Amino acid sequence: MSFSLISRTKPKHRAADKVAELKQQLKNQQAETVSAFGQLIGAADTIAILEADLDDVRAKRAEAEQVVVCLAADLEDLAAENIDLLDRNEALQRQLAPFLAADANANAITVPSAERDTAAFEDQATAPIDVRELQARFTAGPVVSLQYSPQAADPAHIPAPAA
């Protein structure tokens, strides 16, 4: 068998193909490098912005702490002043109390005790109302319907209490 009988249209390994493949890999790596470099620049910008924000927050926090210290000192001063004013108020009330009592006694409104005039019929006092329990009022026997009795005609009729 001769080697000429096996024909190949394309040789299996050619240097030109390997060079083209390596050039393609180089282009891909360069594209990835450019992308990674862009991400690095973007990350650096983000880090710079965040560091500036952190500096602003630290400055505002220091200012707020200073304000809190000043307000705490003011609060202590006002609390002490409040206690002094309350003590002074109590002393003045003790001094003023006898004058207020004397003024109230001097200007007291006096009204003679009143008596109810019961001369008119409508002003007559009423008799005490019997409020014993219903069961105590009807101990003489069971409560009977008065529907058919002669007393049923009189709606004001109330049976007499048991003695």
Please give the structural blueprint.
Layout: H1 15-106, H2 134-137
Keywords:
elongated, 163 residues, 59% helix, 2 helices, single chain, mainly alpha
Tell me about this structure.
59% of the residues lie in helices and 0% in strands. By secondary structure, it is mostly helical.
Helix-strand sequence: HH
Query: What is the β-strand count?
Result: 0
Backbone CA Rg: 56 Å
The major beta sheet can be summarized as: none
What is the overall pLDDT average? 81
Unreliable runs = none
Report the helical percentage: 55-70%
Beta-strand residue percentage: under 5%
DSSP helix count?
2
Shape: elongated
Helix-and-strand structural type: mainly alpha
Q: Kindly, what is the distance between the CA atoms of the first and last residues, rounded to a whole number of angstroms? A: 152 Å
Concise structural overview:
The chain is an all-alpha fold. It has helices at 15-106, 134-137.
